[in-house]
Amino acid sequence: MSPQVRHLPRARRSLLRRIALIFVIAVVVTALALALSAYFITKGAQDERALSDALRQSRQNLTVADSMLPEEPGPSDYTDLMTAFQIRGDFNTFMEVRSEPLPYVSGPDVTRAPVTPELAAKVAEGRIGYQTVTVRNERTMEDERTIIVGSQLRSGELTVYFFYPQGTRLADLARLRNVLAIGGSILAVLGAIAGYLLARAVVRPVREASKAAAQMSQGDLDIRLPAGSDEFGVLAASFNQMAENLQTKMEDLEAGQARERRFVADVTHELRTPVSALVGEASLLKTKLEADPSVCPPEVGRLVTMVSTDITRLRQLVDDLLEISRLDAQAVETVIEPVDLGLFLTQLVRAHGWDETVDVRVAHGQGLDGGAAEVRPAASGGFVIPVDRRRLERTIVNLVENALRHGAAPVRIEARRGTAAAPDTIETIRIAVTDSGSGIPIDHLPHIFDRFYKADPSRSSSRGSGLGLAIARENARLLGGDIAAGNVPEGGARFVVTLPAGDL
User: Fold this and answer.
1) pLDDT score, position 433
2) Domain interval for residue 310
3) Is the same domain home to 415 and 453?
């Protein structure tokens, strides 16, 4: 399975955050819209009511003034009128008498300064007018909104302006604004909690599906999702059906592979005995012909040599098929024992007669990657690792045979502890097999370990079966390591075996 499946939990958490955030934003926007609507509707209604009350009160005051003033009023009459206005309500009065130089005022904060020319012109025409201005309150030393209503009496002899402070109304609006802000904050918090709980409920099926997909990616095909009647239930049913189909196909595939492995193993086992007999007989016949060429014509001798070579190749193919079938069936055992790697490699080269073509070195530092390295004689000993001797031998032999067959001599085997990035560590053992050939074409590197793969299929005369590198890699993985293939800058192919260092 693809390792990208591991990213599903991250996507799940992101979905949870997005759903919760969307819900919170929706709640906050709705609460803000309702709060602003309530505030401005209330403010508009209060403004309209305040203006209506001011106009109504002003008309009543003008009626009272007209009834209280005599035909020829004097200063005392105007003073009594101001007193009557102060008794009638919470407002201030500014009266201007045409025949008197000074106006009558009800308070120190009453002034004509806020009266606009538009209002004064309207009042001068004998009409009642109004405006809303900001007036400095001399008592509180604060600016407050005030409605001013003006009119004339006695044919312009008397001009009156009434000042209606709106401080109380504005305070009520401020309290309303604070209440709405606190209520909106509480609603936002509750919305966040509800959004999170809702998001968890919505994402829970997604979380279960993500977890099931991750388990399936790890090979657990028995996982199933709880079915339901909603959209997630339909998804769960589809997932379960897919899992069942996949499980069935995997079981069929495994059964087919098992049958194929058993067939290959049976055929290989049955072929091994007669092929071994043919190898022996061909070798005996070849030996006799070499001892006495006159036994048969030269053409027959060449045919016997070709037959002997082909039978030897056939035996190698049978051995490789038997080895790969055992690896596939996991019918192999590993025996871990201390092995002096330097001595082991040296003896391996000598046993195969590669002394003239293969150089064995034990390096410390960055020798495997072209950097400086301390090189010691392989046969000096002291490089002991825990490993299965037989599996390691098969791995190295296959790599060296591949290097000699498809590359060019000399071949170098270099063993080292640690990694190139951290040469002082002993967490890994690296064994590099490098030839002096032209290297591996780049387009062939991804397939170099495939079974029966050959870089040049037309080379039918090749003695290789196409299984050597595959067997080498399977043995390396059986030891807990792996093999990587590549090329060196100076030319030639390099295969690096990485093994765990282990504990002795």
Assistant:
1) 93
2) 243-328
3) yes
